[in-house]
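Today's session is about reading a structure prediction critically. Students often jump straight to the picture, but the first step is always the sequence itself: look for stretches that repeat, for charged clusters, for runs of hydrophobic residues. Only then move on to the predicted structure, which in these notes is written as discrete structure tokens rather than atom positions. Here is the chain we will use throughout the hour.
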Amino acid sequence: MYAAIVVNWNGCAYLPRCLDNLLAQVPAPAEVVVVDNHSTDGSRELVQSRYPQVRVVDTGDNRGPCHARNVGAAAVTHERLLFVDNDVVLHPGAVAALLARMDQDPRAAMVQARSLCGDDENVVHYDGGDLHFLGTLVLRNWYRPRQEADDPDGPIGAAIALCFLTKRSVYQEVSGFDENLFILYEDNEFSYKLRMRGHTVWLCPEALCTHLAGTAGLSVRGEGRYPGRRTFLHSRNRWYVLITCMRWRTFWLTVPAQLLYGIVYAAFGVRRGHLGDWLRGKWELLCLLPKAVRARKAAQRGRTVPDRDLLIAAPVTLNPGLAEKGFAAALRRSLDRFFCGYWRIVRRLCG
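Below is the predicted structure for this chain, in token form.
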């Protein structure tokens, strides 16, 4: 038995495929809730007219997917929770595979489905990843042909939150998703909180889903234009996650590398005309610091695993077409080598 929570904002065009495939799963969800971030495109009316068995919860405002997931978790009663974004289409057998994978490991707290690209289902979009000590995610099989994708032989470092199964008790234990993030980096923060308490995160390659359009004005597909809003959120949220989730010793030991990465990312933003977005992100980060300190106390409560056993250093994941040629590619390789060497030096000292 499980409850399904669909997160929606102005997804009227996607909801029928999402809900039809969700309701056709075997086993079917015992309850389905669409948490709507006060859409203006008729989403709520569509669900109420076509899917009377589905409950709609209107949040009253668009406070992002983090808030919507927390509202959804509080609105259902079952222990196992399936979270699905509105632009995700589950393949037959996906939920059964997720449930089976969770049953294999008593410590499993989050199991992600393998996400395929909406414009080409032969290409992997999201396959989870690992927590880089810089606060970013090192993504697995990123835009890799599906037939070439490697399957993990154990837990992974972090999951992407577009389609995943979790346990209500564990979700409550880590206080759900941090709503101060709104969107972007919430996957890092949630996975980090789970793993620092000794829970495991899994990818289930047998559970397939197709990820359609992504979030308007934020998602980057293939070599598409990098939006300024993403620069703003990256500028703000990466440091927020570092402050809330890292042990202070780890934080201060890695500050030189964090600052270097931040400078490079700022230059990247300037090059694309996003200086204002980058600066606004830093200003909002300063405004969020009191909330980050309070969130840190809750995040660190119950921690049993040190950062040196959670974080890695590996080539940073970039979107296709970014820093693949010329000086940019050479700089990227040099920075990756520097960060990997830096982590080797400080890792054993980290808390």
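Discussion point for the tutorial: The two ends are 39 Å apart (CA to CA).
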